[in-house]
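Q: What residues go here?
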């Protein structure tokens, strides 16, 4: 079992994010690169930065064709072990988004808090953000406002549908503490963990190198997703139990074949 050190956990709690020492191997990475190509080809009308729920095999409720290889990595014990150390032993996988910024015209992601978008009660989530390509300042790496999660409050967001941005909700500029911006540069295969209250975003990719990353989303078994307020999706109980009794683990699993589950 992979373990974060007490100092890693302290860093995660203090900063709201952690660059872990975990790196997935080259074979696994090549498999995921093939999955990236495959979902881009299967979803020609969707920007590659917006491939939501992409771990759900078959056509997902959002209308996108997902890929089993993303589900496999999201359930990989090494990744789930890291999540375990920050949200505890009851772990539910509920989402995975591919943010693939093509070379030359990759879109920006405005400053936002994930918690602003998601009806998770009580609000808790860890994102395991896996760099599928080398992520650098040059190709639009993840950027975070270190410590912005600490008050565990949601900042005011503006609805700004700006050309070239992946999301249309953006933290008000006056709420951004520019002195605490950290560029999260990662090698391909590295994993960072992000708290649900952390303000984060990324710049456009104008470079000659693609920047792909998979954001895998996990809630603790003490939270539930209010599906009445959300677009429907499948949930996977990966470890422990659902203490709320309000998460439905059958939805959409019924439509999956035995091989797909
Ligand atoms: O990949 C990025 O640049 C942004 C990721 C993000 O916003 C997220 O994981 O919620």
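A:
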């Amino acid at each position: 079992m992979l373990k974060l050190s007490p100092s890693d956990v302290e860093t995660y709690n203090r900063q709201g994010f952690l660059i872990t020492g975990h790196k997935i191997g080259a074979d696994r990475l090549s498999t995921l690169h093939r999955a990236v190509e495959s979902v881009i080809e299967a979803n020609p009308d969707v920007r590659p930065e917006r491939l939501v729920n992409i771990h759900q095999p078959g056509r997902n409720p959002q209308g996108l064709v997902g890929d089993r290889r993303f589900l496999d990595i999201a359930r990989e014990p090494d990744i789930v072990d890291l999540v375990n150390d920050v949200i505890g032993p009851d772990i539910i996988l509920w989402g995975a988004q591919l943010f693939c910024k093509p070379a030359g015209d990759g879109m920006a992601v405005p400053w936002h808090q994930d918690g602003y978008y998601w009806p998770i009660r009580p609000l808790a989530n860890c994102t395991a953000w896996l760099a599928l390509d080398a992520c650098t300042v040059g190709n639009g790496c993840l950027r975070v406002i270190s410590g912005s999660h600490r008050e565990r409050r949601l900042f005011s967001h503006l609805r700004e549908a700006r050309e070239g941005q992946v999301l249309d909700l953006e933290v008000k500029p006056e709420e951004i503490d520019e002195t605490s911006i950290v560029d999260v540069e990662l090698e391909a295969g590295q994993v960072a963990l992000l708290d649900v209250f952390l303000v984060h975003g990324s710049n456009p990719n104008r470079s000659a190198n693609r920047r792909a990353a998979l954001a895998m989303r996990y809630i603790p078994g003490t939270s539930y997703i209010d599906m009445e307020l959300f677009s429907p999706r499948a949930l996977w109980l990966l470890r422990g139990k659902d203490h709320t009794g309000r998460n439905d683990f059958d939805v959409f699993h019924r439509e999956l074949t035995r091989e797909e589950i």
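A: Context that may help when evaluating the design: The first strand starts at residue 17 and ends at 23. The chain has a mean pLDDT of 94.
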